[in-house]
Amino acid sequence: MFQNTREIRRDSPVAVIGAGIAGAWQALFFAKAGHTVTLHERGTDAMTQATSHWAGGMLAPWCEAEVSEPIVTRLGLRSLVLWREQVPGTPFNGSLVVAHPRDRSDFERFARMTSGHRRIQGDDVSTLEPSLDGRFREALFFPDEGHVEPRRVLPELHARVRAAGGRIEFGSAPEPAEIDGLAIDCRGLAARDAFPDLRGVKGEMVIVETSEIALSRPVRLLHPRWPLYIIPREGNRFMIGASSIEREDEGVSVRSALELLSAAYAVHPAFGEARIVEIGSGLRPAFPDNLPRIAIRDGRIAVNGLFRHGFLLAPALAELTLGYVARGEIDNEVMQCG
Asked: Is the pLDDT of residue 332 over 60?
């Protein structure tokens, strides 16, 4: 087994374990760099076992600055560039942040804690999102943010891996130590054998369908109890989410579902007549500091701890991993060697 990944030759085989958003980007970058890549996934090509299946897919580094460390914004901004380069059809319609008058203090706090936005008044809100006409007197518009639909973009990334010469093996779950070559471990919570301090943070979501509302971008509602985002999907569908619960069961409580749906109703009453399509939850892998980590040790690389920011951070982390293998570059904020 390789003791120093910088000694790996360009033609060294690379095995990426885990075909969720982190593993898909790792496989894509290494395949495009000329490595022989095999992407392993324990589940089927439907990817229903992956955390990515339940993700919101928001590419919102400026909005996330309200509750995240600066490294998330730094890596997120780089990822926006990579999404544009590698997946040119990615929607970049911005993000809209709103609040009701009684929650004005939360709105002002969010404005102070973030950047990259401009304040817009009611008429401009209506111009951006006609369905919200008359609903909010003011909003924060983050024009350079984007979003993807995880269940559509993940198969697209897999197709790009194959187009770059990589192979994908579903129903395959090798142990990193079994790999002959470079193993890149993107197993999420399944990697607790290597990272016992990983924990799962539950994120709950509801998908509804209605033709009475149309949105072009994610809308975040600030609320002291029920902050949420509503993300447009194809086919008149919307994902409603925002919960981060320190529990590792995979169910959705009645209270959570009621709070999410009530908050959506507060954004627009038409959501009260929407059809519920799906309710579910996923466990996001997180380290105690909620920050991502690229760990390099024992001849393998592990990428984990993406927490709530998988789709935002995965491209930048893949670029850093490739930079280390190809040129010995180290990002001291993210990488741990030893």
From this structure: yes
